[in-house]
Amino acid sequence: MDRERTLAGGAVLLVGIALLGAAVAPGVLADPSDDGPIRPGHVNVVDAAVSTGDITGQHAELTLHTTLRHRGNPTENVSIRFRAVDTGSGLLVDETTTQVGSLHNGGEREVLGTLSVPREGGYRLGATVYRNNTRVDSFSREVRGVSALTPAYAESNVSFTEDAVLDPVSVSIVEATEDRTTLRLGGWLTADGPSDDADLSVTFIVRQAESNVVAARTTVDAAELREGRSEMVTAEVSVPSEYNYYIDAVLIRDGVITDTAPGVVNLDPTETIDANRTTQDVEFEAGDFAADDGEQRTEPDRRTEGGTVTETPGFGPVVAIVALLGATLLARWRR
């Protein structure tokens, strides 16, 4: 009996010690199935694309659309660092960091990063994914020909007509004299969409082929073209005769050049040019293209009343007389 009481008292004492220990140190009695702190889930990049944003004359905005995939337990403190590196020089051009925050319940999330780069050359766009400031994944994309991106101010629904048979610039002669020729210039324009630009015009520049001297320049209005139609704008200019000319047709919207088209006219009967040639080895006189000051310049007239004075090579009359006397003396000596 005493033995049973002793054993019961010992058991009660052990239980009391265990309860006291649990109260003082809660971690002493841990769940044997507990694996410790929760391991964060997996995060990686599964897709990335590039789009353009605002385009100006000097810079272009490139936006990276990054798709993150999350699996497993919740992941906290996720961020992405975006960078743009010049492919030519290898220099860092722009950098930005986007805070993603926490990812739960798996699935995918798109994260955007916008970088501003000079509108020229090419760039390598990269992104690095961080979890609690530790790198977990990265990717890169390369873009080229950024200079081809058109600024918003240079966009227009109107352009010069491109046709395999029809030239965008036409030329006809209105009047021709020995010194001056009047040309009628025409430019074919096509409106691909609604054209409500009130400040749309075409400037025709006529350049002498051998020297690039501008012989004439004129501007005509080209506003209010109908959508989906092609129309011609015309203008007249006067240039010196007997020269060949390149014609530059320039489409301007609100002070910005949006399109150009070339043309030629051959007034020199001995030489011809086409739109692909830029120089010619023929005589050129800049005086024909100078402003008229009202003075007449004449060359010295070498003709006399009896006709044109001509000179022939020879020894002259003195030498002829000496030769005649010498022949007479020789004849007498022989006789």
- Could you name the CATH topology of the largest domain? Immunoglobulin-like
Strand order in the sheet with the most strands: 4-3-6-7
The number of helical elements comes to 2
Q: Which sheet architecture does the biggest sheet show?
A: 4 strands, antiparallel
Write down the secondary-structure element order. HEEEEEEEEEEEEEEEEEH
Number of strands: 17
Proportion of strand residues: over 45%
> Given the helix and strand composition, which structural class is it?
mainly beta
What does this structure look like?
With 335 residues, the chain is mostly beta strands. It has 2 domains: 107 residues, Immunoglobulins (Immunoglobulin-like, Sandwich), CATH 2.60.40.10; 131 residues, Sandwich (Immunoglobulin-like), CATH 2.60.40.10. The chain is built from 2 helices and 17 strands. It has a 4-stranded antiparallel β-sheet, with no helix packed on it. Strands 8, 9, 10 and 13 form a 4-stranded antiparallel β-sheet that branches. The longest helix is centred in the N-terminal third of the chain and has 23 residues. It is elongated. 17% of the residues are buried. About 12% of the residues have low confidence.
Describe the structure using short key phrases.
335 residues, Immunoglobulin-like, 2 domains
Furnish the topology, listing elements before pairings.
Layout: H1 2-24, E1 42-55, E2 59-71, E3 75-86, E4 92-103, E5 107-118, E6 123-131, E7 134-143, E8 158-160, E9 169-176, E10 180-191, E11 200-208, E12 214-221, E13 230-240, E14 244-253, E15 256-266, E16 303-304, E17 307-308, H2 317-334
Antiparallel strand pairs: 1-2, 2-5, 3-4, 3-6, 6-7, 8-10, 9-10, 10-13, 11-12, 11-14, 14-15, 16-17
